[in-house]
Amino acid sequence: MTDQPPADDGIRIIYCRCAYAQVVPAVVKDAVLEGLAAAGRGFEMVPDLCEMAARRDPHLAELARGDRPLRIAACWPRAVQGLFTLADAPLPKQGVQILNMRTDTAETVLAGVLAAPTEGAAS
């Protein structure tokens, strides 16, 4: 068996662990994380977007720069957009898709995050 790098289709995937608020069902968070790991795609796990926004983590500005399409598995899309804005790193209007682990099933979130690239994806 050879080690192969994760497939890169140009989409940056961010997975929020929602470590502090405890508002996303653990079963969904765990299933999405397991599905991402099994998919062989590169992704970045952040501990908590809310906490990052509260301390205005400069990494949020890097993510929002929009050098490639961005898919975020977190919670309410409007809340996630607001967090980036609070951190002085507003998300671009095009090329961003936010999947809601708070209300959707793990299967729905994974299907959205792992879907083939589309033109003008918006949240």
Could you characterize what this model shows?
There is one protein chain. The chain is 37% helix and 15% strand. Strands 2-1-3-4 form a four-stranded parallel beta sheet, with helices on one face. It has 123 residues and is α/β, with parallel strands linked by helices. It is globular, with a radius of gyration of 14 Å.
Short synopsis of the structure:
The chain has helices at residues 26-39, 49-54, 58-64, 77-86, 106-114; strands at residues 12-16, 44-46, 70-74, 96-100.
Mean residue pLDDT: 88
Q: Class by helix and strand content?
A: alpha/beta
Extended strand count: 4
Report the biggest beta sheet as strand number plus sense, adding barrel if it closes.
Answer: 4 strands, parallel
- Helicity, as a percent range: 25-40%
Strand order of the largest sheet: 2-1-3-4
Determine the N-to-C terminus distance. Answer: 38 Å
Quote the beta fraction: 5-15%
Quaternary structure of the protein: single chain
Please compute the radius of gyration using only Cα atoms.
14 Å
Low-confidence sequence ranges: 1-7
Envelope shape: globular
What is the count of helical runs? 5
- Order of SSEs, N→C? EHEHHEHEH
